[in-house]
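User: Just a sanity check before I run the rest of the batch. Below are the structure tokens for the first item. I only need the designed sequence back.
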């Protein structure tokens, strides 16, 4: 991931070394950003109890309590003693897939929650998008074409509005990433709502095989 900087003029968090005509202050290296992103995602989406916390019905948790819990209770806490509330806010604001939301000193994952978590988030329905993409690996294609795309352990199926994002997600599951082209109009006709999780991610409860148009290899889109 890219480094995170803070503009010395406007205070904005950016991925560019220069902003407002001046050299920005390095806030977080790409390596630390990736490591923190994975940890925050795991805690908010899967297991807040691993650091002695719980989230409310809408997925919110106090940022200050989260920082303190990571430093004191996480099994590898020695790797995160540098983390502050500002690092988490910057991480959320710059996340390329809009995975996090910050409000009034609280943070939550916008999507991706494990079914084991009792979380209910209200999403705006997207009635406009016509085509969506699902990233996976070639080994899963035969099963998907027969059984459709299911949420498995998560609450919803994740679909991207962009091929590149779908391939990035698919490549994280292994080699030979592919993207599945999904007919969003078909989903609606079959009674499956399409909901906006972020600017680039849509959610649905299930993608029937009949709503799958094509499967393509990621090739140049693939991100490892």
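Assistant: Here's the designed sequence for the first item:
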């Amino acid at each position: 991931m890219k480094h995170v900087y803070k503009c010395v003029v406007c205070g904005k968090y950016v991925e560019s070394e220069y902003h407002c005509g001046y050299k920005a202050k390095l806030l977080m290296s790409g390596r630390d950003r990736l490591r923190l992103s994975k940890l925050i995602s795991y805690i908010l989406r899967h297991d807040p109890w691993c650091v002695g916390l719980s989230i409310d019905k809408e997925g919110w948790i106090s940022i200050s309590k989260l920082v303190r819990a990571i430093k004191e209770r996480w099994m590898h806490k020695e790797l995160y003693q540098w983390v502050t509330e500002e690092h988490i806010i910057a991480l959320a604001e710059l996340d390329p897939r809009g995975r996090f939301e910050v409000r009034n000193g609280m943070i939550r994952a916008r999507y991706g929650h494990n079914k084991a978590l009792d979380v209910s988030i209200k999403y705006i329905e997207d009635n406009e998008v016509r085509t969506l993409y699902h990233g996976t690996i070639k080994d899963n294609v035969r099963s998907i074409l027969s059984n459709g795309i299911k949420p498995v352990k998560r609450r919803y199926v994740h679909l991207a509005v962009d091929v590149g994002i779908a391939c990035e997600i698919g490549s994280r599951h292994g080699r030979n990433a592919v993207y599945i082209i999904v007919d969003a109009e078909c989903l609606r006709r079959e009674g499956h709502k399409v909901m906006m999780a972020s600017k680039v991610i849509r959610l649905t409860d299930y993608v029937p095989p009949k709503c799958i148009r094509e499967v393509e290899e990621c090739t140049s889109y693939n991100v490892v």
